[in-house]
Write a sequence for this structure.
């Protein structure tokens, strides 16, 4: 389908077409399209921009990641499809490892995603040879590498399912989630819950990281003053404000 | 994927798998999965049940449909995939025509969907031979039949896009939408905006129709007293209440 560049929803429609192609390439599972749609709904409810609480969470994310001993960025099918370059540049900026971990796991799909990430510039992508398991999970999602997810102290999980987010928190890790739904199980569980579009979130984290890198005081103060519960409360207030405002506009 | 029957999200997961299969059968366009996801998000925000304003809208829908001269139920890929039987029995109950109308239109896909609907019990499904156009639309979505959509006075459009909903209202029709997002362009435009899951909505309309059939007074009073703006306002209030309540529960 050809989408005219001046279409008001050009970006969003292009992204849908991209995800559709990525299903054909075996990178995105068809049900990944449904989860993308759920995110889109919440993005509408935040006017498709990075709202103030999202920026606060992204600043905190940068601080936690820069302060980590072994930071890891977890990548699933949708993340790889939508943001391969953003993941790679962020990983370089904060010196983090990248590990692919997917729900609908086959060796073939793992290889396809890892190769795709590498073609797009990611280096040393982990996940091909899992040698550890996340305790408490029965599915293949438990499979991970010791040097990556298993031994990480701070982990960034874009578009994560609730079970795994909980299991990672139970392991004592600092879990940073990117999930547009502020009341999802993942957002409820994470240490830092970013409710923002994944591309914008990754870019914002990178910008904050550039700004605070080497400034230990800024990093530590950001970590110490960050209040995730308040951030989520503010996000919910914004959604309700926009919902009611949208309705008023018509009247 | 096998989903255990006691999984708390069994229904929702089964439906995702069904839509995935329906993509393979050519009934659902892959981007239809994304739109299903958007609906799911709003369904979560209404506790996955038919909230009070949805029931009011469904009662009004039954009244408008029973009072119509030429009621038509419009069917797209997602609707056919998820509710072929519900559409058929509702059409019989209210004596409405069924017309298939899709955004990503090919003759092959039209035939696949119509055949599927007929196999599932729908009779005389229109749409194969369009002989009219909805004014103001440039895409293939404008194609329709004169005896069906074009000459309808009351039209039920589950999961409709905003452009077409507006074009149908501009034709002077009573448009009843089923769209979980209460602030979508479709919901803003429709005469009766039902924000409910499509299966529940179709079943509820049918039950109301059975209840009010033959009771002219009940039908006319329902039509005369229905306030769509108030219904949508109530829906938004409920979403905000649930959002805030979900958050409070954790504290």
């Amino acid at each position: 389908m050809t989408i005219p560049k001046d279409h008001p929803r050009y970006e969003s429609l292009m992204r849908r077409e991209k995800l559709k192609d990525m299903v054909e390439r075996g990178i995105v599972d068809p049900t990944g399209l449904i989860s993308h749609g759920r995110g889109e709904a919440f993005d509408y409810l935040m006017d498709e921009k990075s709202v103030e609480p999202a920026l606060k969470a992204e600043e905190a994310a940068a601080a936690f990641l820069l302060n980590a001993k072994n930071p890891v960025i977890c990548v699933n099918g949708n993340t790889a499809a939508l943001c391969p370059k953003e993941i790679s540049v962020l990983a370089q900026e904060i010196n983090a490892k990248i590990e692919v971990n997917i729900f609908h796991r086959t060796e073939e799909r793992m290889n396809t995603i890892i190769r795709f990430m590498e073609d797009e510039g990611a280096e040393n992508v982990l996940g091909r040879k899992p040698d550890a398991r996340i305790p408490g999970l029965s599915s293949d999602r438990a499979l991970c590498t010791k040097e990556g997810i298993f031994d990480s102290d701070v982990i960034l999980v874009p578009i994560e399912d609730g079970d795994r987010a909980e299991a990672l928190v139970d392991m004592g890790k600092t879990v940073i989630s990117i999930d547009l739904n502020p009341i999802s199980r993942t957002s409820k569980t994470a240490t830092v819950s970013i409710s923002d579009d994944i591309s914008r979130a990754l870019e914002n984290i990178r910008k904050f990281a550039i700004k605070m890198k080497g400034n230990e005081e800024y990093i530590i103060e950001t970590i110490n003053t960050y209040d995730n519960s308040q951030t989520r409360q503010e996000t919910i207030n914004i959604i309700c404000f926009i919902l009611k405002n949208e309705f008023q506009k018509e009247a």
